[in-house]
Structures are given as structure tokens and as C-alpha cells.
Amino acid sequence: MRIWSVHPRHLDRQALIACWRETLLAQKVLCGETRGYTRHPQLERFQAQQDPVASVGAYLEGLALEADARAYRFDRSRIRVAEARVQRIDVTEGQLVLEWNHLRTKLGVRSPDVLARWQGVATPDAHPLFHVIAGPPASWERAAT
Fold first, then answer.
1. Which of 67, 59, 58 is nearest to 13 (CA)?
2. pLDDT-based confidence at 39, cuts 50/70/90?
3. Which of 46, 64, 69, 132 has its CA 20 to 30 A from that of 9?
4. What is the DSSP letter of 6?
5. For residues 8 and 126, what is the distance between their CA atoms, to the nearest angstrom?
6. pLDDT category, 144, cuts 50, 70, 90?
7. What CA–CA distance (Å, rounded) separates 39 from 7?
């Protein structure tokens, strides 16, 4: 499961679609509708929120907005708590850089044209749900640095 902290505009088609699907799965986990993934580290930041389902809904809304910009059709009716006002979640610069490097490796293999578009960007923008703060990668991050 990869719920990207980077802004959805940076994702290629495959990553955007996979992130949508994986975040819908995360939503099911947060709603108690599945036995799997209940202790997945990437869910920690949502579970720590006052309303985890609303927070993941806000995240899904950000993905859906990017899908709209690309003329993709993401079914917003699948978002349990849509258009909720939630507090932004902190994400560290270190986490963004780690994810950016991970994403660029993937883009180099499957979407070199998308990688070329972002050439020279050292730190990407964050997903609109996140507020960037100084610091190292998140404690829940399991990807190799």
C-alpha cells in the first residue's frame, strides 16, 4: 500500500489509479470492513486524526480533483465522508524527499516522459491534505532510504 504524500499532479497514470484504489482499501480498513491491513504503517497518520474516515475522504477528494484535471473518471460516490472540513496533517520534508526519490525511480522505468516533466524538482509539492514541516522521514515509513 502506498498512500503518497506528494501532490497527485506528480503521479503518473499508474500511480494515481493505484493510489485511488489503495486509499479506498484504507478507507474500508478505517471503517472496520476488512480484516487485512489493519496495522498497516501508512494508516497511522489517518488513525491519529480526530475523524480518520473524514481525513481519508479529504485525501481521496484530492486524488479525484487530479483525476478530473486529467479527464479520468473516479467514482466519488465511493468516498464515505466527502467534502468534510478536516485539519491538515503534518508531513515532513524528509518524508516528501524519500517518496519523491521512490516515485522518480518508478517513473524512470514506466513513465520517462512524466519523469522528464519534473526534472530539476528536488522537493515536490505535497498533497493538499498535508502541511509540510521540517524533519526526517516519518516513523511509520518502511521504504528503504
1. 67
2. confident
3. 46
4. B
5. 8
6. low
7. 25
The predicted model scores a pTM of 0.95
pLDDT digits 0-9 by tens, 56-72: 999 999 999 999 999 99
SS (H, E, C) 25-93: HHHHHHCCCCCCCCCCHHHHHHHCCCCHHHHHHHHHHHHHHHHHHCCCCCCHHHCCCCCCCCCCEEEEH
- State how far the Cα of 138 lies from the Cα of 145, in Å rounded to an integer: 11
pLDDT for 143: 75
Q: Which of 31, 2, 24, 1 is nearest to 100 (CA)?
A: 2
Q: Which of 63, 52, 64 is nearest to 26 (CA)?
A: 52
